Amino acid sequence: MADAWLYNYTDFGEGRDQSSRPVLRATVPVSAPGSRRSFSAIIDTGGPINLVSNAFIETATAAVPTDERLILRLGGRRFDAPVATIAFALHPPVPRPAAPRLWTGLAAVIDPWPHEGTAVIFGQTGFLDQFTVTFGPQGFAVEDGSTFAARFSGAPGS
Amino acid sequence: MIRTLHLEAWAGLWVALDHDDRVVASAPTVKDLMATLDGHGIEDVEIMHAPDPNEAIPYGLG
Fold this sequence. Notes:
Structural class of chain A: mainly beta
Shape of chain B: globular
Strand content of chain A: over 45%
Helix content of chain B: 10-25%
Number of domains of chain A: 1
Radius of gyration of chain A: 16 Å
CATH topology of chain A: Cathepsin D, subunit A, domain 1
Distance between the termini of chain A: 27 Å
Order of helices and strands of chain B: EEEHE
Strand content of chain B: 25-35%
Distance between the termini of chain B: 29 Å
Radius of gyration of chain B: 13 Å
CATH superfamily of chain A: Acid Proteases
Number of helices of chain A: 2
Largest sheet of chain A: 6 strands, mixed, barrel
CATH class of chain A: Mainly Beta
Strand order of the largest sheet of chain B: 3-2-4
Oligomer: heterodimer
Strand order of the largest sheet of chain A: 4-5-10-6-9-8
Shape of chain A: globular
Largest sheet of chain B: 3 strands, antiparallel
């Protein structure tokens, strides 16, 4: 990923019967490395760690369980979620002809998956510690994690 | 730049979209959807859940 990948916000149609104002989600396509079937993943800047469903895990041949478990609340339910190390492939925005960006990150595995919408949620550990993500009114950009320090000459507070 | 999807006809189902955002397969569960994709040899798709426009909008913490 030598340059920024620019993504549109996605309007899945949530709440379309309630309001004319679209509900916009920052989503990116992600799969297991080598797979040509991606899942739409929501970027949640307030989420402490990546969350994946069993549906995604079943496609992730390189998922390695850790000894860690996290107690999480999601969709109004409490989960005792095992944490795994998972290999991911971030796909570029369509129709950009670029190879997926591969990385390995932690994710908590949620079962049963309580959310409608996506089978993957990207949070701080496992995604935002890997990429620089810039949100703007017209869309958002995903770049290498090192971009932030290079652009702003240091860490926050420096 | 908004990617507006029109998934009302598949509300409540898991769907697979091609690069033109056309639904090429749908099923009640991801497992069933993957079986359908396998059965038809369908690749190069993005998988998501089609929301019901009348459902509450998911928001925030927990």
